Amino acid sequence: MNLKRRLSLANAATVIIPVLITVLVALAYIFIFSHVMGRDISVENYQRLSEIKLELIESGNSILRQKPEAVEEESFQKNLQERLAAINGELIIMKDDEVLFSSRNFSKIELAKFTLEGNKKWGKDPVLVGNLAYSVDAVSLDFKDGSHGSVLLLAPVDRSLSSLTGLLILTGVVLVLSFALTNFLISYQLSRVILKPLYNLQQAAAEISLGNLEREIVEEGDQEIRALCRDLELMRIKLKDSIRTQLKYEDNRKMLVSSISHDLKTPVTSIKGYVEGIFDGVANSPEKMERYLRTIYAKAEQVDTMINDLLLYSKLDLNQIPFNFERTDIAGFVHECLLESEPELERHGIRSSFESELASKRMVLLDRDRMKRVIINILDNARKYMNKEQGEIKALVRETNTSIIIEVRDNGSGIKEEDLPHIFERFYRSDAARTEIKGSGLGLAIAKQIIEGHHGRIWAVSHGGEGTSIMISLSKM
After folding, report:
1. Which residues pair with 65 in a beta bridge?
2. Contact (CB, 8 A) for 35 and 200
3. CATH 3.30.450.20 fits 40-158, yes or no
């Protein structure tokens, strides 16, 4: 939900819910007293109560406008009684606790109750006399002879009117309590929906600041908070990738240093030895001097090739080399690569052949230069480890339902089964004899990186003493 909308609904609910609860409680109260207890607490009844109160107030004001002694006159008493009779009221006039006039006979206890309620300033309650309830208003009088008196104005009140007062009090209390409870519940809900996700974000940010990038930031809360969670999660992922790349840089730097120091030691030592031989005059003839210099040049080329392979592998491993893919006829491409290497293979007594089992021309997205490097590396690797007088290398292209398979098979010495999973690792050689082979030890590792850059797969199959097959699988277009 949108955060702005949630806050608007919360503010509206803070007002609407207490009002609804109060209305429901008031309706229940009216239903109980009206239908269960048989009391009339209608608006008309409340209006009648107001009219009675007004009549009593006017009667009281009439008394106050007269002289105190006027209340002892029969005409005044009769006139006031007639006014109260219009509302079925009663009149009691007292002087020094003696009854001067009473429109109805009341007992001393009832008179005491009337006097007590009439003298109250606040919180007056109706006085029950038999089945009737009277609202009492008292007007105090001071006579000239120093005596004290009072006029008690009694108005009949339906007991249901007290229920109406209770209703007003109840609705006020319910409104206040429901408002407080609603505010508490809405505040709790907002804290759970808004503050909890923010707290989790704060905890995640603290973990990131401490270097812990493994804690995933889950999207939760309203739209704005979810968007913030999503952005922070992307930041975490990018930061993690950045650190991983940095660690790869460091690993490659260490690898380069250790590999150069290890694999370049032999050719550099040879170069130093031949140069020292020249300085010492060992190369004392033009023919010997030329042989020394050619050897030095060959060793320098070997060093240059190893350094280039190291740099290429490092860039491929860090995805720093872009691939330029283009539609390519895969059978023609493999055949072309084989023809390019054919002179070198023939010079080492190796025959090459090509076979395509494709029913028709098949197009594949390739980076031609990078893929050519893969085929050349595989052919060169097969040439280096050929141990037969008549070597043979065959390139075969076939297809499955979803992919194109390229197989380069030789009839060399083969590879041990336990070495197959490792031959595509950098600087791996399956036996000590192969350490004498010229090369960087990165040919197949580079081939694997390039094939994976094409979203393909490369693996090896050993045929025992009858040779090895290097298999490449590429997706069809």
Report:
1. none
2. no
3. yes
Digit-coded pLDDT (tens) for 382-420:
888 888 888 999 999 999 988 999 999 998 888 888 888
Whole-number Å distance between alpha carbons of 317 and 304:
20
Residue with tokens 């190796």: 350
Q: What pLDDT score does 409 carry?
A: 93
C-alpha distance across the termini of the chain, in Å: 44
Element (H or E) spanning 58, and its range? helix 43-65
- Per-residue pLDDT of 81-94, as tens digits, reads 887 787 778 888 88
**Nearest Cα to Cα of residue 341 among 305, 380, 398:** 380
Q: How far apart are CA 16 and CA 231, in angstroms?
A: 37
Higher pLDDT residue, 12 or 262?
12
Please give the Cα distance from 441 to 309 (Å, whole number).
9
Q: Which fold has domain 326-475?
A: Heat Shock Protein 90 (3.30.565)
Residues 6+ apart with CB under 8 A from 126: 133, 134, 135, 157, 159, 161, 162
- Other CB atoms within 10 A of residue 343 CB: 8
Domain ranges within the chain, ordered by starting residue? 40-158, 264-317, 326-475
Burial class of residue 103 in the structure, from the number of CB atoms within 10 Å of its CB (0-12 exposed, 13-18 middle, 19+ buried): middle
Distance CA 457, CA 448 (A): 8
Q: Are 410 and 467 in contact (CB under 8 A)?
A: yes
**pTM (predicted TM-score):** 0.44
| 104-129 confidence digits (pLDDT tens) | 888 888 888 888 887 776 656 778 88
Confidence band of 165 (pLDDT split at 50, 70, 90): low
The CA angle 81-87-93, to the nearest 5 degrees, is 30
What residues contact 114, with CB distance under 8 A and at least 6 apart? Answer: 92, 106, 127, 134, 136, 152, 154
Which strand (E) or helix (H) includes residue 109?
Answer: helix 108-119
Q: Quick one: angle between helices 3-31 and 223-263, nearest 10?
A: 140
Strands ordered across the beta sheet of 391-399: 350-356, 391-399, 403-410, 468-475, 457-462
Instruction: Render 354-396 in DSSP notation, one character per residue.
Output: EEE--SS--EEEE-HHHHHHHHHHHHHHHHHT--SSSEEEEEE
Rg (alpha carbons) of the chain, rounded to whole number: 55
